[in-house]
Amino acid sequence: MNNSYVKLKENLTYLKLNQMDIHLNETIDFINRNDLSFVDALIKLTDYEIDMKEINMVKAMVKVAAFPHLKEIKDFDFEFQPSVSKEQILDFTTLRFIEQKENIVFLGSSGVGKTHLATSIGIAAAKKRTSTYFIKCHDLILNLKKAQAENRLETRLKHYRKYKLLIIDEIGYLPISEEDAKLFFQLIDMRYEFRSTILTTNASFKSWGEIFQDPKIANAILDRVLHHATVINIVGDSYRLKNHFKSEEKSKVDILK
Ligand SMILES: Nc1ncnc2c1ncn2[C@@H]1O[C@H](COP(=O)(O)OP(=O)(O)O)[C@@H](O)[C@H]1O
Ligand SMILES: [Mg+2]
Q: Is the CB of 173 within 6 Å of ligand 1?
């Protein structure tokens, strides 16, 4: 083997340029065949390294976002849930709403796909390297409470303020005390007209007064959330029970036979 070639391989290993190392032979062949200049050859080789960096960056963004699962739009059966417009959801994945600092609220009963859709949009954002974070409302409040007890609420709020997209899942499943509602309000107020937030809830806005145990705070929260927001009201069956009903229907058919 040619000495320079061996030295170049060693250099690439030393510099941890693995992709350039892996693609070195095919690139040399390509360059010889097509008579590429030194600059074009270097561009071709470094592009392999950049492509991998991009892939790893996206992976890291998705990991940091802490999604509950990696379900995407392509995994959502829009025929099963006709009250959800595919075009509208696809439009969200262009991230136009993030540029315009708008919110999205998914409203609907359990199992209709709120978390799935919120996550899908979040994944689309993370893939475009938009800082995204997913958290359940209950965990978010526990986090803020802990920070307050440790005298670092301001820092924590600032932390949550920095995400270009924050997904707050499951508002309304658990009651929120008046004190906690104030913490939640501070977070919403900090992000208002500054960052986009996706919220999911099984509770109609009318009942938020009860959930937050203070109608005034609930109103202040809703006011800010809904000022620039699209509300997707999902009216339909639970996907979780889909197969259950199917088998029930089947057994009914069996009985009728
Ligand atoms: N229309 C759908 N197509 C495919 N999977 C769905 C659909 N709706 C819900 N699911 C799946 O059903 C389960 C429950 O959905 P989820 O989004 O968690 O419901 P919600 O948050 O509204 O309670 C998840 O595993 C989700 O991926
Ligand atoms: Mg959910």
A: no
CA distances from 96 to 102, 139, 221, 241 (A): 9, 28, 23, 34
201 lines ligand 1 (CB under 6 A): no
Any ligand 1 atom below 6 A from CB of 71 = yes
Q: Which residue has the tokens 């030194």?
A: 38
**Dihedral through CA 74, CA 75, CA 81, CA 83, nearest 10?**
-40
What confidence score (pLDDT) does residue 248 get?
52
Could you tell me the pTM of the whole model?
0.86
- For the stretch 47-101, pLDDT in tens is 999 999 999 988 999 999 999 999 999 999 999 999 999 999 999 999 999 999 9
CA angle 62, 235, 107 (to 5 degrees): 50
Task: Please compute the mean of the pLDDT values over residues 203-207 and round it to a whole number.
Answer: 96
Q: How far apart are CA 223 and CA 215, in angstroms?
A: 12
Give yes or no for residue 209 CB within 6 A of ligand 1: no
Ligand having the closest approach to the CA of 171:
2
